[in-house]
Each structure stands twice: as structure tokens, then as C-alpha cells.
Design goal:
This protein is of the alpha/beta class and 710 residues long. Helices cover 44% and strands 14% of the residues. It has 29 helices and 21 strands. The two termini are 40 Å apart. The chain binds pyridoxal-5'-phosphate (PLP). The site of pyridoxal-5'-phosphate (PLP) has 12 residues, from helix 8, helix 24 and helix 25.
Amino acid sequence: MGTRRFPQIPDRIQQLEELAYNLKWSWDFRARLLFKRLDAQLWKNIQHNPVRLLHEIDPERLINASHDPDFLREYEVTIQTLDRSSRGDKWFSREFPDLAKQPIAYFSAEFGLHTSLPIYSGGLGILAGDHCKESSDLGIPLVGSGFVYPQGYFHQRIQADGWQEDIYELLERQQAPIEFAGPDRTAPFLVDLKVGTVKIVVAVWRVNLGGVSLYLMDTDVVENPQGDRELSARLYGGDKDHRIRQEMVLGVGGVRVLRALGIQPIVWHANEGHTSFMLLERVRELVQAGSTFEDAAEEVRMTSVFTTHTPVAAGHDEFPLPMMEKHFAGYWDELGITRQAFMELGRLGDSFNMTVLALRMANGRNGVSQLHGRVSRRMWQVVWPDTPQDEIPITSVTNGVHAPTWIAPELGLLFERYLGPEWVEKHDDISFWNRVMDIPDKDLWEVHLFLKRKFLAFARERARARWSEDRVDGRQVISMGTLLDPDALTIGFARRFTGYKRAAMIFHDLSRIRSLLLDRWRPVQIVFAGKAHPADEHGKHLIHQIHSLAADNGMAGHVAFVENYEMHAAHFFTQGVDVWLNNPRPPLEACGTSGQKAGMNGVLNVSVLDGWWYEGHNGNNGWAIGGPPEDLDVRYDDDADADALYQLLEQQIVPLYYDRDQNGLPHGWIQMAKEAIRSIVPRFSARRMLKDYASRMYVPAALAGTKIKV
Ligand SMILES: *Cc1c(COP(=O)(O)O)cnc(C)c1O
């Protein structure tokens, strides 16, 4: 069993420790309930983190629980269920028995797993987290590689003047659900790296996600000089020179760490260009073992998968060639190529582009929605100048979200009742979801109203804490959503604040939106949340603009901005509003996943036909703002889009919401909510996505790799 980290836990319930260190609890609500039972108030105060709970709980409570028959019953059931789920025969081993034990490495700069582990900034990270969780559920032998960022991504506060303040807090590693990666869980697992001119020691942490392990590097160890200790301090912090060194550790170091752990993957997946140096390091290994560069590069290509995530040009990392030269001096010799040939691997104009490198060095290449696949083929034709655009070898796998993480437990219980307990196992079975239509309207609506009240209570609690702890002024308390009305049609808009997402579009015509918001009989309210990247002045400006409207008496408390959007808040938002608004400038939203979370919870999407909604909208499961994009050029027609949005609100959305029977039930609305659940759960779940990745990307790469070896 090894050393016990919590000797105060009575023997009878000792496995609580193991349970706390496996993030399976983050998508198993019965396991979470078990911890909550120990101390519900503490559980809430520490934002649902079992490791912290075990540190802070009064030991007396643990002793009482170990004698409480009700608690013990739940404890046994939970332990047994988790045991069974870790042993059972899963999809991947049934479909591909020969590959079931061969690791697939998944490299990502961020992972959004739970709010207690702040190593993500937004959609990309949460997608990576969902990818790992679903791999565990399907039995895909994935191994994750990334960083633990001791200062994470920043916490957001809005100051009295409406400007965002970025606050960095140090992660208490002992309080987080991570453990030392080595065989001895009581001692740090250190790996010595020399990467080009960078010489650094990393401590490696492990995160357990059901059957999947994730290894996170941490440069903040005493063995490193002060400057280097900061290398993994923050997500996307520092200047370009900092970034290149960070990415060298992420890619090259990540490979070495897996080797040090004795893990030999047969397929390697680079999630976004930040991790592309991983591909070079594997070529270097093969060349050092005696291959020619050409053979080594071919082997790496055959066994690698690369996913690109953005059509925004500035979203692709690139480094000036002299900077590459400085940090990789000598590395090209180990690859067996010249400096110039080395630079050509990623050269785009005067820079070394991480996406170009990955496109050249991985044969499995994909965008993250059908539309984004097309956009990527056009965008990266520079890499294949002689190939017609339609034949550019970049395919697409549309993103999905991890259903057990994002569907509200209260709704899950309703599915259990009307669809059967097998709903989790069958959640990507399209015809199975026709059964949603059998849920009585009243039952679905009751759950929705419960989740809506929970969301409003969440906003109010945050406002209350800021009012009493930080003495913020009254206007701010109102702007945080304390006057929101549980009976009003509630629109949610929550995501990163950045120009192309057009957070303020709904205020394009102030008088027109005001008359919708302030309608006496059919009021509407809008709740915003989201962080702007610290360097994004325009994003910060948008927050300021919305905050001013939220604090304006003229809006009568019908506009709110909730601070510090992250995963915890995202659950309340995507489960508790009535309408999910998404109005990016097409085609800049590669996929978008928050609307998928909302749709699975019966929240209706109103969105431009970009990203996933282009393939997800079926005419009955939500609304489309404007028509499909005519070509792949960026449109800037804010006037037309805002007008289309107002028309939808005025003529369809508001009337449908307020069309009630004598019991107050909006049957037409509920019908659409059911259609949203029916059509979105099976097709936009991470389960469907992972089955696609496994069959279309991983297995072909694994087979190609095996052929090379025989
Ligand atoms: C799902 C999610 C996102 C992604 O939002 P999009 O609107 O799809 O870009 C961002 N942040 C958080 C916290 C999320 O949970």
C-alpha cells in the first residue's frame, strides 16, 4: 500500500486517500458526494477538492464517518464501482485487443481537469482534459505529458473602475490532487535535462485520471538557478525567449521524462503547435541510435498525430530564426543535418513556425471541426504549394465534450430514470437518445429551473463574498448579478474575451437591446463572464465596456458580469442559463465547445454557423444567427449579424420562452431543449471524438509503426 499520506483516516475508510488522488471523482458524482458528506460546508468553501478536504477536515468527523452505517454503505458502493470501472473490459481493448497495452503519448501545454489544478486557460486546455478523461473511460492507453504551472493562469478580479486585475496565486502542491511520479510516492521524481543550450532539472508529478496517467513537469526545484525555476511558473507568461525555452522543455523534456519513467509509446499526439519540439527529439533519439535522418524522420512521421486548433494567424507560435539558432546550437548535429536543413523544417518567412514543423513531421493531421478542416487546408497550402487545396493532407475530427463531466448530475439522474442507467455507457449511440422525447415536460423543466436557481445562487454567493470580504462598492455588487431575476429569460455569454468572439455584439444597438431587456411582461437578462489575456488590451476594453453596462441603473440589473470564469463557474453557467449565445466572426471559431456543454444540458444555443454549430445545428435544436459562411474569408459584418440576432430574439426566442400553459410550462421551448439533448449528446461528446481519434488517427499510426519494426 505504501506510505499513508493521511494517517488520521481510520483504517475502515482508508481508501478515501486513494480515491482523493484519482481525479475520477471529478466525473463521478457519487464519489464527490462521499467527500461532500464528510463536511458539506468545507466542501463548498474549498471548491470541491478532496485532497484539501482531507487536509483540513476535523479528524473527529472522519472517526464518526467510520462508524456511520449510511456513510459506510455509500463508501463500499463507491469503492466497488470504481474498482469495477478500472478493471472492466473496455471499448478499446474489445476493438483493438493487440494494441490495448501499447501507450499513446498525448502532449499538451495545458490540461483543464478540475478547478483545483489551475493548469489551463480556456477551451484548448479543457478539451485536452476531456480527451484524457474519455480515454480512461474507453480504455484507450493514453499517457499525458505537460507542465504543472505553480502560478497557474491568473485569477480575475474586476476593479471598481471596471478594469480587469490579474492576480497570481501560488499553487499549494500538497493541497492539489497530484503526487510524485516515481515508484516512491514520498520522494520527488527528478529528471535532469539538457536541451540545446538549456540545462534544467524538472520534478515530475503524476495525475491519476481513472486508468490514464498524466505526467507534469515542474521547473520550480531548488536544483535550478532562480531564473530557470520560473520557467514553468505561468501558463503563457514571459517573452518569446521565455516561451521558446518553455516549449523546449515541454516537447524535448516531455519525451525524456517518459523515457525516464520507462514508458515507450507507439503513437505520439501533439496537441497544438506548442508541443511540436517533441517530434524533433524523437528523430534525434533514432539518429543517435544509428538511423539516418531520413529514415528517422519517416518513422516519426508515420507514428505521429498533430492537431491544429486555430485559424487565427497570431495563434500559431513562431520564433525568429536567430533565437532558434541560439537555443538549438549543436542540436542539429545530433539530428545529423545542417543548420540550414534544420531551420527549413519549420521555416515560414523569417520565422520558425511550430505548426509548420508539426505539419511536416506528423502524418496524422487534423483540424477540430469540418469547417476548420477546410480553413486549415487553405491556410496551410504554403506547406504543400503544388497540391490542390482540396487535397491538402489535413483532415478533421470535430471536438466533443466529456459528457459525465459536463452534464449536471441532477439531469443525469433524470436520464437514469427515463432512459435507463445504461445512458452513460450508451451516450454516443444516436438512436438511444430518441428516448429523451419520453421524458415528461414537467420533469425536465423542474430540473432546469433547479439548475437555473443554482446558477443564480452561485453568482450571488460570489458577490456576497466580495461585498463582505473586500468591501467592494454597491454598484459592483449589482454588476455581479445580485439583481438577476429567476423568472426572466436568461442569456449566458462566457468564454475568453478576445476580439473575434465579439462579446459586446448584443449591445450593437443599445436602444433595441434595452427594450428587450426591460420589457415589463417578457424581460430578458444577460450574464457575462470571461478573462482577457493579460496582454490583450482590446479584450480588457470589452470587459470594461460590459462591466459599465452591468453597473448602469438604466439596465436595471438585467446585465451582469461574473468574475473569474474557470471550470467551476463554467459548470454553473452552461447548466443554468436558458440560452447560450455565441457570435464569433466566422470562420475564426475553430470549433468551440462551451455550446456543446450547454446543449447537452438542454440549454438552447443561439450562434453563428461557425465551428461545431455549422455541423450541429439542425433547425430544431437551437438557432442560427445568419446563414452558413459563403466562403472562407473572415467576415466583418457586425451590423448584419447583430440585426439577425435581434430578429431572432424579438420574433422567436422571447415569444417561445414566454409561451406557457396554465401550469407555467413552455412546451414549445421544452421540445427544443429535448431536441438539443437528443441531437447533441451523442454527436458532440468526447466519446464520439475519441472513437474517431482512435480509429482514424491512432490505430493507423500504430499499425504503420509496427510495420516499420518487422
Ligand atoms: C468550455 C470552456 C471554454 C471554451 O469556451 P468556447 O466558448 O468554446 O471557446 C472556455 N473556458 C472554460 C472555463 C470552459 O469550461
